[in-house]
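Section 5: illustrative case.
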């Protein structure tokens, strides 16, 4: 499972898509911005935020494996994928069709993550 702890201003900014001068190389910035979804607290998990757009749009998956959809229905490579379903995808370029609705989450996990209890607020690690 891929994850990022948003524990410093440059990482927080990159995950939000806000470039900070002298923080990350462009490819690293894009990787953080495009391949992680906020889970809870300071924890971001691997996945994609899928937002509606007219017609087909490109979808690049950075790794092969199981992906689970949260929040609606999309078509990826002509296959209908509904809320809660999990599909196995190859890494690389895919075609997404999602024209209406709110943004959805495509988690790079075998199931949609559902926390049993929320994380406490505050530092993730101390005395390290």
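Designed sequence:
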């Amino acid at each position: 499972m891929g994850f990022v702890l948003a524990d410093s201003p440059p990482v927080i900014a990159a995950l939000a898509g806000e470039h900070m001068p002298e923080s990350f190389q462009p490819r690293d910035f894009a990787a953080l911005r495009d391949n992680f979804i906020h889970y809870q607290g300071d924890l971001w998990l691997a996945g994609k935020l899928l937002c509606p757009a007219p017609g087909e749009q490109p979808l690049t998956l950075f790794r092969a494996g199981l992906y689970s959809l949260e929040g609606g229905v999309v078509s990826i490579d002509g296959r209908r994928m509904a809320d809660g379903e999990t599909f196995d995808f190859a890494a690389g370029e895919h075609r997404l069709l999602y024209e209406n609705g709110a943004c959805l989450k495509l988690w790079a996990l075998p199931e949609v993550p559902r926390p049993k209890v929320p994380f406490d607020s505050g530092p993730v690690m101390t005395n390290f």
